[in-house]
Write a structure and sequence with these properties.
By secondary structure, this protein is an alpha/beta fold. The chain has 5 domains: about 5-150 and about 460-555, 3-Layer(aba) Sandwich (Rossmann fold), CATH 3.40.50.620; about 175-345, Valyl/Leucyl/Isoleucyl-tRNA synthetase, editing domain (Isoleucyl-tRNA Synthetase, domain 2), CATH 3.90.740.10; about 405-450, no CATH class; about 580-725, Orthogonal Bundle (Isoleucyl-tRNA Synthetase, Domain 1); about 785-855, Signal recognition particle alu RNA binding heterodimer, srp9/1 (2-Layer Sandwich), CATH 3.30.720.200. About 40% of the residues lie in helices and about 20% in strands. The chain contains 28 helices and 34 strands. Strands 8, 9, 10, 11, 12, 13 and 14 form a 7-stranded mixed β-sheet that branches. Strand 30 (about 830-835) and strand 31 (about 835-840) form a beta hairpin. Helix 18 runs antiparallel to helix 21 and helix 19 runs antiparallel to helix 20 (about 630-655). It is flat, with a radius of gyration of 38 Å.
Amino acid sequence: MAYDSSSIEKKWEDMWREEKVYRFDPKSDKPIYSIDNPPRYTSGSLHLGHATGYSLIDFAARYHRMKGNNVFFPLCFDVNGTPIEVRVEKKFGINKLDTPREEYRKLCSDYANGFIKEMTHDFEILGESMDPSIYYQTDAPYYRSITQLSFVKLFNRGLVYKANFPVNWCPHCMTALADAEVEYKDNVNKLNYLKFQIAGEDGYVMVATTRPELLCTCKVVAVHPDDKEKAHLVGKELITPIYGRHVKIIADPKVEKDYGTGNVMICTIGDKSDLEWIMKYHLELEKGIDETGCMTELAGKYAGMPVAEARAQAIEDLKAMGVLDHQEDNPQQVSVCWRCKAPIEYLQVPQWFLKTTTFRDAILKRADEINWFPEFMKIRLQDWTKSLEWDWVLSRQRIFATPIPVWECKKCGHAVCATEAQARAYVDPTLDAAPVDKCPECGGELEGCTDVFDTWMDSSGSSLYNCFWERDEEMFRKMYPMSLRPQSHDIIRSWAFYSILRAEQIADSRPWDNIMIHGFIMAPDGTPMHTSAGNVIDPIPILEKYGADALRYYAASCSLGTDHAFREETVVRGKKICIKVYNLGQFVSRYFEGLKAAPAQPKDLRTADRWILGRLWKTVRSVTESIEVYQFDKAMKSVEDFIWHVFADDYVEMVKGRDDDAVKYTLYTVFLNAVKILAPFMPHITEEVYQTHFRQFDGCRSVHLTEWPVPGEIDCDAVKAGDAAAEIIATVRAWKAEQKLNINADIEKLEVIGGDSDLFKKSEEDIRQGVRAKTVVIAAKADLTEKVEAVKPVYGKLGPAFKAQAKAVVAALNAADPEDIASQIAGGKVVLDIEGGKVELGPEFFEIRKSLTLEGREVATVQCGDALLAIQQ
């Protein structure tokens, strides 16, 4: 029966689900291995990157389950945030401003939850061993209450505050963004050279700016203090075009002398540099752009225009005024929203902040306590932490997220936070009453906060939630910190950073012992996959064509920390491995027919048996060491090389034809343990082989609940002898392939000459069987005789040299004795008699064809290390 991935995989997926094979047992005394599994965002179907990333996580889960750990690996989904709102608004043609809050929430909830069933199924058919008994989703009251409770505790400790402070603002999403939510993309805009009149003088100063629409908020113009050509300008005033504002010229070392004119317009707020100067010089913050991305009344005639439109109109007006001298292209990195990719603005908007910058050193210390895989990824977190200049903006002006549990006085602005009891029950201040009737400061009316938390506030609490923080303190002490955080490299500065911060502030601890960072899966040409580019690869058709185990094999080939182009040929290789393992199971099982118990170890094993056992235990050791440090690519390669090449190509070929107790025991032991170390990577085919051929003897209900192999004793002498035999067998097989012979074709005799004869003799019978020889002779030396079969002309040289005489030379050569001609060649020249006299030729005109004979019979010879193999067909 041929291997059929679709039927086999579904059969075992059904069994795993129905028999609840993958379950965390909170009452177990086994050591816990806990995974802070990334909750999959429910805004669409799984893509190839998810299929690969979650497979890497599953490798760790399955391995540690077999190692005897009580594995905590929750099925979970992230059901929060802006991307869902954006999709809902697009689907229903609505926006948050004109839709009732509760109706808007319900639309978002229904939309996001609509994907969960499909995505759960996708995880299942990928072979992910997530546990639905510890399921969670981040929009559930039980999860949001943990976010709120942590906020209440931080608020009461004075770590939370509200401030009217410039923040990253997305006009499209209409919400504040944390620095970690800002991305940068390359762009080319126009640098506009404008003439600013010098107050009280006839001259002007040329100022270059990319944001002429913000002339209405220009505060000062800066030059570099070392710029001697501009030193005389410092302290003078300039008059801004259009608005006629008087602004001073100051000197600041941050000015780039060689950028533009070296005269920098500082306004509120064009970019992050403007913001830094505003803070440094305590400049008045004026609001030229509002939350919708339109100009304010401060912009005069441009009020109400979107920024891009106002910029274009201002440029036309500046041209008409004769103030715009010229423009030039300006390559620049533009700050954009990481969700919608719209350009961000810096706006002064009241927001809630969590103190972060004062925890820089603590975060760096905790990062050092964590094992990073790969280690170099820690540098990204360190660099990000050291670069922080502002606290974390917690609040978002959205709806579908966890409400900030605060009520504010309409009169004096005093904030009243929810009680811990309210937070534990989950509270919505837009619907629920405050813990007090009136403002405790002035007696004014309290109004519920309409802001919600940044989604990372929820996500960064995943380790706290998973370990039952504030729900079961005994379990929390037992589980915290968690064993592993797996994630991609792009969210180190967000999910990893905020999780470490929250663990430090809430639990005075690191959140996990280990963090595993994987890269992106790119298109086959190495470019990023984007829907807009039309190059996104859906994993489901690949899975249906090749099977989940084949796709997981591709995932196993992806080393951590780097991006990988998708290679379908790697998936094809994975399918071939599944077929190989399936067929090996069919072969090996023949040796167990009629047995009622597992084959017992006999007193004596042949060299080949002790060799393959030694190679097995070496492989188990290597695979174990690799998985322990999350080097799944190395582990998979070790397993593959052992099963395909060492076991199948070498040992199986050596023992075909044997039927003794030793071979039965060896085949059983080696293949069972090989299946076990393959199981984390290819769970379906290994379950099929285990259930079909081994369960009756081994007794476990699933291969994934068996014990991980422990290396046995290694017979080093047997390993050395077996390796030598395997090399000889491989050399003969390669020779057969070159001769276009069937790899199992019989040969009359193989003589192994030279090398370590004593070592070869230990495996003489195994070599004979492996090369399919009737006879094998191991000899320290042998009497090989070389015979010249023919001497052929090199026509490419002979023709041009002898032209018309070439035919006569060839005829004379064919008539001569090959041995005599070969002897002359060895002497440096050949003399031939042709019509018209003798001709002399050098060795370069001839090709000598020789054969070897051994004991009078012709043989082929192949070098194998220090030994010479003489093959008689």
